[in-house]
Each structure stands twice: as C-alpha cells, then as structure tokens.
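Thread: zinc ion complex, take 2
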Amino acid sequence: MYDFAKNVVGDAGDVELLIPAGTEPHDYEPSAKDIAKITDADVFVYNSGELETWVKDVLENVDKNKVTVVEAAGSIDLVAGAEHDDEEEDGHDHDHELDPHVWLDPVLAQKEVEAIRDALVKKYPEQKEVFEKNSAAYLEKLVDLDTDYKEAFANAKNKTFVTQHAAFGYLAKQYGLTQESIAGISPDQEPSPSRLAELKKYIEENNVPVIYFETSASSKVAKTLAKETGVELAVLNPLESLTKKEQEAGENYISVMKENLEALKKSIK
Ligand SMILES: [Zn+2]
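Output below.
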C-alpha cells in the first residue's frame, strides 16, 4: 500500500509507512504512537480489514471528517482462503477466512492503485491532474507486469507450484495456475501432520522441482519438507513487508514482482 500510495502521490505529499520494515503484517498491532499517526494523518490507506484486522477498532476513534480512510481492496470481491484444514494450535479452523492477498495479482493491484487515486482526487480536487498523471504512469507499469506474467505462463505444461504461505491465490487464479500451500493464508498457520504427509506425497508423485518460502516469516516447515523430499528451495516474496536492506537497495513492488516471476519460472514451465 505504501508503494502504491507513493506512486500516486509523487511529490504532492508525504507518504509514510506505518508498519515497520521487516514486520509481518499478519501479526502487527499498532502502538499508541502508530494510532496517533493515523489520527494526525490527512489520509490513511490500508489493504483490507481481512489483513489489517486491527483497523476496525482504531477507526472508531478516528475523525473521518478529517482523516480520509481508503480500504484499497474495498471494491474487490475477496475469495475464501486455502481449502485444506489449517488448524492452528488453539484448534481454530481458519477455513472460512477470506484471502486478503489481492495485491499479488498485477491486475487487482491496478484496482487498488485506482482506489487510492480516486480517494485522493475526491479529497484534493485541485490536485486531480497530478494524481491522474502519476497513477497513469504507474498503471502502465502494472499493465506491463501483467503482460510479462501472462506471456511467461501461457504455454507452460506444469501449472502447479508449492508455497509455504498461501499468499498467491489471486495471482494463481489470474494466470490459470494452481497454488499448493504448506501453511494457510496466515504464514504462522502450521500445517497438520496429515497435511504435511499429503504434501510430501504430492511433491514426490508430481516431481515438484521447487518449494517456495518467504524470507520474513517462519520457514522451518518449508525447509524441512524440501530437505526430506530433496527438492530445491526458492523465494517467493508476498510483499507484505520489505526489510530495511531491501528498501535501501531500491526494491519495490514491481522489482520484487519481477523477481517472483523469475522464481515461479523454475516450476511453471
Ligand atoms: Zn499473508
């Protein structure tokens, strides 16, 4: 959301990242200082109440006449998360949770950018041209990204990939791929022993060449599974957070999505 908002705003305002670099947003809770930042802001952008579950409570104390609140995924129909049982240790079944990871689909990402643009134009009509020009340039890059993905996977024979965190469901759907996940839509949802056995069998029977994991979350299970099955590990970044190092290196949504595409080509070919 930070990167999308920054690209729409350009030099017309200051965009600040609320969730600290390298922090897993599924686990994030705002501090009193963070809440004050939201209260003091002119505009507050978040992805979806299904990911930033704390937003609902925070907004009760925010003056919406002052702070314009943008739920970027608000107009997108969310689908249910991973279909298999993701029983957490507390015994809760997360089968019915909606999947918030829309930004990982370059087409839905465009919808989020448009939602941010429209909210800013509405609030600052005198800056309409600036926001429209900025977002048009960025949307063009997202269209190119979509074309790259489409072309890469159009003639692939294997269309299934195995990933640790079920963050790539919308991306998979957009390009006719199938995501098999080890954990659920929240990366700390540990798989049950029967799900692990099932995955191991799946990997062996289908000659799955790569298991994807993400660097920021716990990836122990993915690594164990790769070791047990003798399969290569590769990174798929769910872009929920970039580390400070990645930010300083100039990484952004588009550069990481291009890295994800290269990584996916290792199994979808
Ligand atoms: Zn996630």
